[in-house]
Amino acid sequence: MSEKHYSYNELYEFTYSVFKKIGCSDTHAATATKVLLSADMRGIDSHGVARLIGYVRLWEVKRVNATPDIKIIHETPSTAVVDGDSGLGLVVAPFAMQIAIGKAKSVGTGWVSVQNSNHFGIAGYHAMMALEHDMMGIAMTNASPLVAPTFSIDKMLGTNPICVAAPAGEEPAFVADLATTTAANGKLEILQRKNADTPMGWVQDKDGNPSTDANILKKGGALLPLGGDREHGSHKGYALGAVVDIFSALLSGANYAPWVPPFPAYVPMPVQQPGKGIGHFLGAMRVDAFRPADEFKNNMDNWIRGFRNAKPQQGQEKVLVPGDPERAFEIERKKNGIPLVEAVVNDLRQLAEKMQLPFKV
Amino acid sequence: MSEKHYSYNELYEFTYSVFKKIGCSDTHAATATKVLLSADMRGIDSHGVARLIGYVRLWEVKRVNATPDIKIIHETPSTAVVDGDSGLGLVVAPFAMQIAIGKAKSVGTGWVSVQNSNHFGIAGYHAMMALEHDMMGIAMTNASPLVAPTFSIDKMLGTNPICVAAPAGEEPAFVADLATTTAANGKLEILQRKNADTPMGWVQDKDGNPSTDANILKKGGALLPLGGDREHGSHKGYALGAVVDIFSALLSGANYAPWVPPFPAYVPMPVQQPGKGIGHFLGAMRVDAFRPADEFKNNMDNWIRGFRNAKPQQGQEKVLVPGDPERAFEIERKKNGIPLVEAVVNDLRQLAEKMQLPFKV
Q: Which strand (E) or helix (H) includes residue B301?
């Protein structure tokens, strides 16, 4: 796999111009670009510019509205439901998170469920918006069905990620950002490119048998919930994915379970649509709604250092704290740029030609 | 393993009289008994009357205060911190959940972090308190360190369970109640009684090597986070357990990470105590703070039926919905009573003698 490196600014400029070209406002284009590239910077390559062409294709088939009228359709002092008006999730989710933060400022916490949206990039970006306000941030989204619940052959849930971010003092923030599956789809894509097998416990075939085929999703197979099988707690991963679906879609009126619209524009929409678009859930909790922020942050520092100082297993350098791997990527990529595999570069080049935009390669 | 069956009322009467004997008020004794026995009824035998003698021992060494002055020490419209005054978690957690429910009534959601408490039984009881108010309920607690994070030899977290309960319409409620480990400690105890091994991925030995020894905790080993190992997503289980710790203890000022007090009274308290007692986190979200409760509950029914109708794997009767196994136990035990293994019966008999209480066997 050949890889080329691009600076953040190069990719920012191009991505921004693509979002402008499909009709986004300056502000929306800037937000969407920042959210998308935060994935590349944090090493979650499957959710970054690699998906740019996918968002454009959704716009082409009129499933993404580039000029959405995003609005609150119901609210209480600590909650709101937002209608994303089919906008980019990259724009809708930060809008909803700002509302959560505002409500947390006034009543301690804010919780916003979102309907009628599209894929929102990485959950981490949205949850981390809370940190600068000395708040904890929570972000979840449902997604199209790739995951078979425990005992099921049918795919009923998406990889439904959860992110929780908590500020610290001298230490960097705690950021747990995880798909509720054993492995996210992006991990399969990496193995596909290498022609490698998956470990047992990641996927099953179309009949529900254990499999190690990284291409199994194309053959009717499914991803497995965190835990892998019943004996290893897959019913827990399934339950967590279900919770994400309920918070994101049942509370908001979005589509849920197997009826969540797919990301690839060429995949037909589900026949049954019990709600609108896909759903997210965003939350913010003001730390000092519980105790003085300084006390909390001192304790977080002590907590984090405790884990960093835990004795590592032989062969492991150290025990990591959630957020460490992504932060290491960020530091490295700020210095050396973002590596893109050839397939992604080709997609971007194709996009540049079609939209008559410059893309330097 | 010989087992005797006891009716709910028999065990209620005895358990209530034990709590009265250590000095609990009528109300506290009744609440503690209800919470404790809800575990036995729901098939979570490790958290029911099997633990009664353990609570009494904690009271004997003055780690449980039978007449606590449980109070709010800080609050905002949607949040509170509760000081449990070293009371039984069985009493402190329902107190805190009532506050969460009250705040949800007035501002849409309520979130209560608790310090200075003790073990609270099953998370499910507390989360399910929200259901009758047409609210979603959330309950978490930290616990003494039995779990080694990914790459760690040291035990840094408890089994830190999470429960989320959501009301449905005609269908029974969705109740996901799970330890953030591959298997809870109670599962090991069952295998110990059978002299059986654990599957791979449940535990590791004192040096961090994979193990299948169900007695490994007594030999310096550890439980593993949900996922088992890094390749199967144990960093996600670890992150979820960490989130529970932060919500329960860092927000409240309870002890956290490896410094959480142990349940067995004979285990010495940690030398370092950065907080007070153990911590819980209780939340309630009014469904109609988001959308009309009827709409939500209709959608939940449709969601639940979708999963029940999913195609099961060969050899599996059907796909379950979180809460189904516990509900099946409840139905069966209401009819046939609660089976107690001999070791538990002996504990109760010993307790009856010591406290001069009648215990019919």
A: helix B293-308
Q: How many CB pairs under 8 A join A and B?
A: 257
Question: How many other CB atoms are found less than 10 A from the CB of residue A25?
Answer: 14
Q: Which residues of chain B from 5 to 64 reach within 8 Å of chain A, CB to CB?
A: none
Token code pair at residue A310 = 């835990």
What chain B holds in terms of domains, given with CATH numbers, is 1-67+327-361 (1.10.1530.10), 68-180+231-322 (3.30.1370.60), 183-223 (3.30.60.50)
Burial class (CB in 10 A: 0-12, 13-18, 19+), B134: middle
Query: If we measure between CA atoms, which residue out of B335, B337, B340 comes closest to residue B2?
Result: B340
Whether residue A238 contacts residue A145, with contact meaning beta carbons closer than 8 Å, is answered with no
Q: Which tokens go with A164?
A: 């929780």
- CB B308: neighbour CB atoms within 10 A? 14
Question: What is the H or E stretch that residue B7 is in?
Answer: none
**Beta-bridge partner residues of A280:** A114, A141
Long-range Cβ pairs for the range B197-204 (8 Å, 24+): B199/A231, B199/A232, B200/B228, B201/A232, B201/B228, B201/B229, B201/B232, B202/A232, B202/B228, B204/B148
Strands (E), A11-100: 71-76, 79-83
Provide the residue count of chain B: 361
Place of tokens 């700002």: A98
Q: B352 touching A, CB under 8 A? A: no
Element (H, E) at A274: none
Contact between B121 and B47 (Cβ < 8 Å)? yes
Rounded to 5 degrees, φ, ψ at B126 are -70, -45
Of B181, B199, B243, the CB nearest to A231: B199
With beta carbons less than 8 A apart as the criterion, state whether B120 and B36 touch. no
CB A157 within 8 A of CB A257: yes
**Whether B357 contacts B17, CB under 8 Å:** yes
- Which residue, chain included where needed, has tokens 């309950």? B139
Closest CA to B319 of A101, A234, A55, A76: A234
Backbone angles phi, psi at A153, to 5 degrees: -95, -35
Q: What is the pLDDT of residues B101-113, one digit of tens each?
A: 999 999 999 999 9
In angstroms, the first-to-last Cα distance of chain B is: 17
B80-134 residue pLDDT tens: 999 999 999 999 999 999 999 999 999 999 999 999 999 999 999 999 999 999 9
ipTM above 0.95, yes or no: yes
Question: Would you call A300 an interface residue with chain B, using a CB distance cutoff of 8 Å?
Answer: yes
Mutate to test the interface with A, among B79, B250, B280 (most CBs of A within 10 A): B250
Angle between helices A8-21 and A52-60 (to 10 degrees): 0
What is the DSSP code string of A306-346? Answer: HHHTSPBPTT------TTHHHHHHHHHHHHH-EEEEHHHHH
